[in-house]
Design goal:
The protein is of the alpha+beta class. The chain has a single domain, classed as Cytochrome P450 (Cytochrome p450, Orthogonal Bundle). The protein is built from 21 helices and twelve strands. It has helices at about 1-30, 40-45, 50-55, 60-70, 85-95, 105-110, 125-135, 140-165, 175-190, 195-200, 205-220, 225-230, 235-240, 245-260, 285-315, 315-330, 335-340, 345-355, 390, 415-420, 435-450; strands spanning about 75, 80-85, 100, 170, 365, 370-375, 375-380, 385, 455, 470, 475, 480-485. A five-stranded mixed β-sheet has the order 1-2-8-5-3, with helices on both faces. Strands 4-12-9 form a three-stranded antiparallel β-sheet. The chain has a two-stranded antiparallel ribbon with strand order 6-7. Strand 1 and strand 2 (about 80-85) form a beta hairpin. Helix 8 runs parallel beside helix 21, helix 9 (about 175-190) packs antiparallel against helix 15 and helix 16 crosses helix 21. It is globular, with a radius of gyration of 24 Å. The N and C termini lie far apart (about 80 Å). Bound molecules: protoporphyrin IX containing FE. Protoporphyrin IX containing FE binds near residues 294, 298 and 302. GO terms for molecular function: heme binding; iron ion binding; monooxygenase activity; oxidoreductase activity, acting on paired donors, with incorporation or reduction of molecular oxygen.
Length: about 475
């Protein structure tokens, strides 16, 4: 008898809980300023469509599709709104706009324990203090003075390997550019390169980084399932889950080694102190977090964009011919500045960044105190608004025939075009590694087309393999890009 009473009580309480939530969701969906924002009915109640798209690697395309249907401002989940008109994008990202990064960044990077890297810090003031500690190390001046020989050396070795392999069967440019970017950023962060170019394969640290990224993404999207499975005593699973701890231990021992050898030429070096503020003053754990974050942010981003640049050029023989002629004019020991002065290479790079910049979507921000008017709608404070370069870069009113790879469009660009090109983000959170990425890309593209002027795509490469998939970054679905000579 008592059991039946408990059963009815549980049923009653569940019904109350359910009704309360339905009413709360319905109120949110159909009343208040946000209810005026268009979007699919289901997205007013559930984030399932967005979650599914994210897990299937097509978030950016899902959101782009919604913009095509509903306009420049659209509801993508009960809690999140995407806005892609240029004035709103600029307002959200502008310096002093005070739109903090949303909590998604801390969860996505697994930095929810209070020790955050520059990438995930939400608070604008705290972020600007941290960023100041690194801005000198990543300035163009410091790059030219301290890091250019390192980048040049890694680029030469990468292209030499590509050339040899391309002549004798096939070279996967994505793999070699990934090794190159890894070696550069690992030396900047830890004072010692992972030497993946010499090994011709990813280091254990990189494997752990990949596992940690997948783990963090799954924890963000499927938290209940992840909390449950982490107790299963399966060795492979436990090894996978242990990746984050191994990264911390690697970082700790690298920093220790740096101290012992007094090797101070890293991004944390006092050499780069800005008005006495250097990243040297960070705690060891903060440095470990920053180093990990920069290796993640500075590896695949550059390698993927560069790979698409090479692929897109090889798909367009007329572009390849023009580029090959141009890079021939460089002196044999050309510098990154010489390469960046090349007009056509710069047009090709802008076009590759427009269509294939590796971070084209979903930069969520929290609306600051007092709320803000954006795109004709009022957003109360605390609302999450997100922008995406993917849609902005394909706006037909700004870029004629937007889906075509056409470097010539940058011959004499309109102001709208240059304003709308935001592959590195904008404002206070603009990519701190932008100058480094541009240096690597200019040197690598120029060296590749000088050394491999007759390169072509291998017959094994299909267009489908280079279709984009999107897990925060975009990447080729086939996970490789093979060239031959
Ligand atoms: C082609 C290559 C690259 C692309 C397309 C790219 C793109 C971006 C974008 C769009 C953002 C803004 C993210 C946001 O607002 O949420 C960003 C931020 C960032 N990037 Fe890059 N990036 C590239 C290379 C690099 C490199 C080489 C590094 C090396 C350190 C790097 C480090 C960072 C960091 C630390 C941030 C966070 C900056 C902050 O919040 O203050 N990136 N990047």
């Amino acid at each position: 008898m008592a059991q039946i009473r408990y059963f009815h009580l549980t049923l009653f309480l569940s019904a109350v809980w359910f009704t309360y939530h339905v009413i709360r969701l319905a109120r949110k969906a159909f009343t208040g300023p946000l209810s005026k924002i268009p979007g699919p009915l289901v997205c007013r109640f559930s984030n399932l469509p967005l979650k599914l798209a994210t897990l299937q690697g097509r978030r950016v395309f899902f959101v782009d599709g919604l913009h095509h249907k509903y306009g420049t401002c659209v509801r993508i989940s009960p809690e999140e709104f995407s806005i892609v008109d240029l004035p709103s994008t600029r307002a959200i990202h502008k310096v002093g706009g005070n739109y903090g990064k949303s909590l998604w960044y801390a969860r996505f990077t697994g930095e929810t324990d209070g020790v955050q890297s520059m990438f995930s810090i939400a608070d604008s003031k705290e972020h600007s203090q941290r960023r100041k500690q690194f801005s000198n190390a990543f300035s163009e001046r410091a790059l030219l003075e301290f890091w250019e020989p390192l980048v040049e050396g890694r680029v030469k070795l990468a292209v030499q390997n590509i050339k040899e392999k391309a002549q004798t069967g096939g070279a996967d440019v994505l793999a070699w550019f990934t090794f190159m970017a890894t070696d550069v950023i690992s030396e900047l962060a830890f004072g010692r390169s992972f030497k993946t170019l010499e090994a011709g394969e990813k280091s254990p640290y990189l494997h752990d980084l990949e596992h940690a990224a997948i783990r963090d993404m799954l924890t963000e999207e499927l938290s209940v399932i992840m909390k449950t499975i982490c107790y299963l005593p399966i060795p492979a699973l436990q090894h996978f889950l242990g990746s984050r701890q191994r990264l911390i231990e690697y970082g700790r021992s690298s920093l220790q080694r740096g101290k012992v050898q007094e090797n101070d030429m890293t991004i944390f070096s006092k050499v780069f102190a800005d008005n006495g503020v250097s990243a040297n003053s960070l705690s060891d754990f903060e440095k470990i977090r920053e180093a990990k974050s920069m290796i993640i942010a500075g590896t695949d981003t550059t390698a993927i964009t560069l790979t698409y640049l090479v692929w897109a050029v090889l798909k367009h023989p007329e572009v390849q011919q023009k580029l090959v002629e141009e890079v021939k004019t460089l002196r044999p020991d050309f510098s990154s500045q010489d390469a960046r002065k090349l007009r056509y290479l710069s047009m090709v790079t802008d076009e590759a960044l427009r269509l294939y910049g590796a971070v084209p979507g979903g930069l969520p921000r929290t609306v600051p105190k007092g709320g803000r008017e954006l795109g004709g709608y009022f957003f109360p404070e605390g609302t999450v608004v997100t922008t995406q370069a993917y849609t902005l870069h394909r706006d037909p009113s700004v870029f004629a025939q937007p889906l075509e790879f056409n470097p010539e469009r940058w011959e004499s660009p309109t102001k709208e075009m240059t304003d709308a090109l935001l592959p590195f983000g904008a404002g206070s959170r603009i990519c701190i590694g932008m100058h480094l990425a541009k240096m690597e890309m200019a040197l690598a593209a120029a060296t590749f087309f000088r050394e491999c002027p007759t390169a072509r795509l291998s017959s094994a490469m299909t267009d489908g393999m280079m279709e984009l998939e999107n897990y925060f970054l975009v990447a080729p679905k086939g996970h490789k890009c093979e060239v031959v000579m």
